[in-house]
Write a structure and sequence with these properties.
375 residues; eight-stranded parallel barrel; TIM Barrel; three-stranded antiparallel sheet; alpha/beta
């Protein structure tokens, strides 16, 4: 069987919102799409079958964490990340760039790359653009990300410029190290903080390298939704219409709706899985805290519009009981629901874009959020 070429085609557009199809060596992904985060080769509290049941078509892994354990070389010997985690579909791997910011106290940043002290045992590791790309190749990542520096917020124009220019130089080295294969792709990462001129410069440099897709990095790092949307208002226009656009590390359901409206195609965030482990449920009627006593005698489904295992087989009262007793089933069920909700939100967005009703879709969703759990 011939492996398909890596490609992205638009199926419809409503304003700046886009519905597309991403084709890869490991399957097709309708967009807009939300990628479940499987940092260490697993989506926390979920089996691969459970992740598939949410409607997810693509998941995310992390180069830094898999580099530490079990190591990329071991993953390769075990048949690659797809086989190891029972996920034959597409996998995107973060390059480790976010950890350059999040583990700032454990690293030394240089032109060559970044030297880390492992947060696990203190062992020293060097991560360069070339090595990050090699690790992702060993993992058999469908979509490889360039190594970049995720700029802190706030940052001065000079700090953002220096960081963005380093990421551009690393993008060139990452691109040179990437081994082209049918159905596989590599994404460049736009940086520039909240400065329009820097975002434009970064985009031009990345487009010149002709990546298969482009990510928007350096957002959702403390700037707030209003500022994030202001940046997206201009920076998506700097990227090619014919390539997928991925907003990294975002976010809340409302973040997703607003970002799709501004031309973003792909998302990832730990929020739905982390919330599931801490008793927070994302629903069609807003966010619930399942530890709240108001749910202890509530025999309704968590979300009557949801077809997941949690909502079709269990009650709000049972979920409340599980979290009060600290039973592991509570996080498992709520993570299942939250990921299903995120997938259904994106599926609804896609359908609305194709019928050119996206604005009214968003208005209806937001109106329902305001009604609350007792409506």
């Amino acid at each position: 069987m011939t492996t398909p070429e890596f490609s992205f085609t638009l199926a419809g557009q409503d304003g700046r919102a886009r519905a597309g199809m991403l084709k890869t060596a490991h399957g097709e992904v309708p967009t807009p799409t939300f990628m479940a985060v499987g940092t260490a080769g697993t989506v926390k509290a979920m089996t691969a079958d459970a992740v598939r049941a949410t409607g997810a078509k693509i998941v995310l892994g992390n180069t830094y964490h898999l580099m530490l354990r079990p190591t990329a070389e071991r993953v390769a010997r075990l048949g690659g990340l797809h086989k190891m985690m029972d996920w034959p579909g597409p996998i995107l791997t973060d390059s480790g760039g976010f950890q350059i910011m999040s583990l700032a106290k454990l690293r030394r940043l240089e032109e060559k790359g970044v030297t880390f002290r492992s947060h696990i045992d203190g062992t020293t590791y060097e991560l360069t653009p070339e090595y990050s790309t090699e690790i992702q190749h060993l993992l058999d990542s469908t979509i490889t990300m360039q190594l970049d520096e995720c700029t802190k917020f706030p940052a001065t124009h000079r700090e953002a410029k220096d960081s963005m220019e380093l990421s551009i130089r690393w993008a060139k080295r990452s691109r040179d190290a990437f081994i082209t294969r049918p159905g596989y792709g590599q994404f460049g990462i736009m940086q520039g903080n909240v400065y329009e001129d820097l975002r434009h410069y970064s985009a031009l440099a990345l487009v010149d390298l002709d990546f298969e897709g482009y990510a928007i990095g350096g957002l959702a790092v403390g700037e707030g939704q209003a500022v994030m949307f202001e940046v997206l208002d201009y920076c998506t226009d700097f990227l090619p219409v014919s390539k997928p656009r991925y907003l990294m590390g975002v976010g809340t359901p409302d973040d997703l709706l607003g970002s799709v409206a501004r031309g973003v195609d792909m998302f990832d965030c730990v929020m739905p899985t982390r919330a599931g482990r801490t008793a927070r449920a994302f629903t069609a009627k807003g966010v619930f805290n399942m530890r709240n006593a108001r749910f202890q005698d509530d025999t309704r489904a968590l979300d009557e519009n949801c077809a997941c295992l949690c909502c079709t087989r269990h009650t709000r009262a049972y979920l409340h009981h599980l979290f009060r007793c600290e039973e592991m089933l509570g996080p498992m069920l709520l993570t299942t629901h939250n990921l299903t909700y995120y997938q259904s939100l994106m599926q609804g967005a896609r359908a609305a874009i194709l019928t050119r009703e996206y604005e009214s879709y968003c208005a209806d969703v937001r109106d329902n959020w305001q009604r609350g759990p007792d409506s």
